[in-house]
Known about the structure:
The chain is of the alpha+beta class. It has one domain (about 30-160): Glutamine Phosphoribosylpyrophosphate, subunit 1, domain 1 (4-Layer Sandwich), CATH 3.60.20. It has six helices and nine strands; from the N terminus they run αααββββαβββαββα. The protein has helices spanning about 5-10, 20-30, 35-45, 85-90, 130-135, 145-155, and strands at about 50-55, 60-65, 75, 80-85, 95-100, 105-110, 115, 140, 145. The longest helix has 11 residues, at about 20-30. Helix 2 packs across helix 3 (about 35-45). The protein is globular and about 50 Å long. The strands form three sheets. Strands 1-2-6-7 form a four-stranded antiparallel β-sheet, covered by helices on one side.
Amino acid sequence: MTLQRTLQKQGSIFSSTSDTETILHLIATSSGKDVNSRFIDAVRQLEGAFSLVALSSTKMIGCRNALGIRPLVLGERDGAWILASETCALDIIGARFVRDLKPGEMVIVTAEGVESLFPFEKQKPRFCIFEYVYFSRPDSSVEGRNVYEARKKMGLSSPSRTRSMPIS
């Protein structure tokens, strides 16, 4: 049974089939005492590839799944912390890249700073190679490697080689 169906049987009402809405329902129905524990409870129920960011009035929470399939980076600009899926997003706004979040890492950003937690059981990372081949922009760095340089080393330096071909 899917998480959404389980939540519906417990009384949750959905207005979409969005994964995001499912995560919100998991947070809302959690028995955790505060936002942090509710968020941890919710993400521990998820399976598959994800990196996500959530905001409340007092904090920003970022989380990368335990396998590290999708990237998530931490940046800073003028004393403000930033979470993004790619380093090029930091470049666009003039922010400084601080570091990649580790697989299974959750960061909680508040006025006091950044707290790092590891709410998942440790697993062997399984990063998605398509971040280098197709998903990420060439001007990004992923896991410490420049995407363009990684593509060149794989023989994929031509942008046309990394796009889907039309089916005739």
